[in-house]
Amino acid sequence: MSRIEPFDTLPDGRTVEQVTLQGGGLTANVLTYGATVQDLRLDGVDHPLVLGADRIAPYLGPMTYFGAIVGRYANRIAGGHFKADGRDWQADLNEGGRTTLHGGSEGTGQMLWSIAAFSDSSVTMVLDLPDGHMGFPGAMQVQVICSLSAEAALNFEITAEADRPTPCNFAHHGYFNLDGGPDILNHRLQIAAAHYLPVDADLIPTGKETHVEGTAFDFREPRVIAPGGYDHNFCLWRSRTDLRPVALLRGQSGLTMEVDTTEPGLQVYDGGGFGAMQGLGGRSYGRFAGVALETQNWPDAPNHPHFPDWLLKPGQTYRHRVSYRFSRASQGQ
């Protein structure tokens, strides 16, 4: 049965609540802080499927963004600068003073959401962003529906509306580890993308779309993630579309996760920059402890006219759907 209970307290005294959902053989804990999936379990599997923490403090430090809904512009904007509504804008520079990452230092992944509705297998959370928040134009209303469905799927539907033209790009920033082991380097990954975006030293796309053939970015057929080194966008298509399969992740145990989305990009980050952290049930997380498969628009799209449309205008509704579907396969399949 679904339940809501206190999880922890933020430094300013506000209470973070935890919603427990069950459905399709899955159990998920979702926090009001960041609309974060704190834990995810599959019946018959004795370890978590995601990286998370048992208290709020790690989410305020080394585990920022883990499992959260990040925005109002997920990923990076070079120099935090963009043009919208006929003028220049400067967003909060929260990554080395050089880029805006995941909406700034107080993006949606670091804010307290409100519970609007819930059932045994679904919770709806909402958040209001004021005009000028983190330097972005327009008041924005954001809603996320997190649900568990019969096919053992963790689903998100993210919608947003704004009263001025504004950048809009949200992503679920969960880290997955299907084996419960120390790293994901031997997980096999497949991505339905023929191109990826090379990046500069600040992890900003150069603007060139490069074919994956003959490169370490060719995941058109399943292969192991090792040796790692991925924090890149894979180009799925050029605009939002119907929900369709885009990626498959398989652990050595045979546990498989399929990813379906409406979004034009898939950011793959293998956790290569992780330091030592303590996670769920006292587990130790280090380098490559989990892999993020973030469905979203392409990074820094506001500064690349040939990238997919990134602007949300008054009267429009942003609608992003993604499904992470789990199943068991035979060893070695």
Question: Would you mind describing this structure in some detail?
Answer:
- The protein has 333 residues and is mainly β.
- It has one domain (3-328): Beta-galactosidase, Chain A, domain 5, CATH 2.70.98.
- A hairpin with a 4-residue loop joins β22 and β23.
- Helices cover 0% and strands 42% of the residues.
- The chain has no helices and 29 strands.
Question: In short, what is this structure?
Answer:
The protein has 333 residues and is mainly beta.
Key terms:
single chain; 333 residues; mainly beta; Beta-galactosidase, Chain A, domain 5; six-stranded antiparallel beta sheet; 29 strands; 42% strand; globular
Mean pLDDT: 97
- Label the CATH architecture: Distorted Sandwich
| Helix vs. strand class | mainly beta
CATH topology: Beta-galactosidase, Chain A, domain 5
Q: From the alpha-carbon coordinates, what is the Rg to the nearest angstrom?
A: 19 Å
Low-confidence regions = none
Q: Counting H and I runs of at least 4 residues, what is the number of helices?
A: 0
**Can you list the strand order of the major beta sheet?**
10-11-12-13-29-23-22-17-20
The total domain count is: 1
Largest sheet: 9 strands, antiparallel
Order of helices and strands: EEEEEEEEEEEEEEEEEEEEEEEEEEEEE
The gross shape turns out to be: globular
Helix content: under 10%
CATH class: Mainly Beta
Count of distinct strands: 29
